[in-house]
Write a structure and sequence with these properties.
The protein has about 325 residues and is mostly beta strands. Helices cover about 10% and strands about 45% of the residues.
């Protein structure tokens, strides 16, 4: 009898401890606390907890714009308090989402766990000086219990459907064949290409392919997706130190000379269905201030979401292989 009680105690304790983790996908709606104002932000958090520290991706959809950021924060298991600092939120009265002002805000919330659901209630707050310009936004996050291995993010919510709309600063790349007489593949660049700094090699369009082929391909992960197109979001997941990259699809550059920051660089890719496997490679143009050149790549196909941590150097290209999942129905 005593043994049974001990076993049950251990099982219940294990379940209780597990339930206190904030790792997972969270979704919710943030409302601006201003009388007569009904602007809201559809929000999502994908977090991984390691002890008292958390990291992951925060994203929100406001009016016609989706933005996402790599974030770090803290979690106090005793008080269940979560804090994530310096989140750039578009000003709630912005007329334009493409170049509107941003409010730097902190998220402070508290984890609540019940038999029915896990929630995280809190607010986005700015510093006292700007509290009237950038008022408090209250939010209640709910954990997506259907999430497995953080591979699904708000698949049934409005956010999950809307974030596929490319924004002005995003890059859309298709695998259409180049026009006759123009055998050179098109290389897309975001509006203001970053300058290459601290680089040992001058990467111009002529030698970019040559330099890429000289480096060793290192396969980091194999992914199975359900769609013919994907969205890739790239962040500098380490110290923001000026890492600059070019992204290759099947050995051809699709986005060149881009600096990685905490703000996502989004690329929309149409995959080549004539290939069994498509390869996406990260080519390091420099190593930043802290080698190697590291990035968090988030791949979304509209149904599933995958996180891959990549590390490239002057001798190797970090590469992800993507295969179309065969439907059994």
């Amino acid at each position: 009898m005593l043994r049974i009680i001990l076993v049950l105690s251990l099982v219940l304790t294990g379940r209780f401890v597990f339930s206190q983790s904030i790792s997972g996908s969270w979704y919710g709606k943030a409302d601006v606390v201003v009388q007569g104002m009904y602007n809201n932000y559809l929000t999502e958090l994908v977090l991984k907890q390691r002890g008292s520290e958390v990291e992951g991706v925060f994203g929100y959809y406001f009016k016609d714009s989706y933005q996402s950021f790599f974030v770090r924060g803290t979690y106090n298991k005793d008080t269940r308090a979560v804090r994530i600092r310096n989140l750039p939120m578009l000003f709630y009265r912005s007329n334009s989402t493409s170049n509107g002002p941003e409010c730097m805000m902190d998220f402070e919330g508290t984890l609540r766990v019940s038999k029915v659901k896990s929630s995280m209630n809190g607010s986005f707050l700015t510093i006292e000086k700007y509290k009237y310009t950038c008022p408090e936004m209250r939010v209640s996050f709910t954990m997506d219990v259907a999430t497995k291995n953080l591979d699904s993010m708000l698949s049934s919510s409005i956010v999950g459907k809307k974030f596929w709309m490319p924004q002005r600063e995003d890059v859309v790349v298709s695998t259409a064949a180049p026009a006759a007489g123009n055998p050179t593949p098109n290389v897309a660049t975001v509006a203001a290409p970053a300058k290459i700094t601290d680089s040992a090699i001058d990467y111009n369009e002529r030698n970019l392919l040559a330099q890429f082929t000289r480096r060793k391909i290192v396969y980091t992960k194999d992914l199975e997706i359900t769609s013919d197109s994907i969205r890739i979001s790239l962040y500098d997941n380490g110290e923001i130190d000026g890492d600059t990259v070019t992204v290759f699809l099947n050995g051809k550059p699709v986005v060149a000379h881009q600096e990685l920051t905490a703000r996502a660089m989004n690329i929309y890719l149409t995959l080549d269905n004539s290939k069994d496997v498509n390869e996406i490679s990260l080519f390091a143009e420099n190593l930043g201030k802290v080698p190697p050149n590291t990035a968090l790549m988030v791949v979304t196909d509209g149904v599933s979401r995958f996180e891959v941590f990549l590390s490239s150097t002057f001798t190797q290209n970090a590469t992800v292989r993507i295969k179309k999942r065969i439907s059994r129905h």
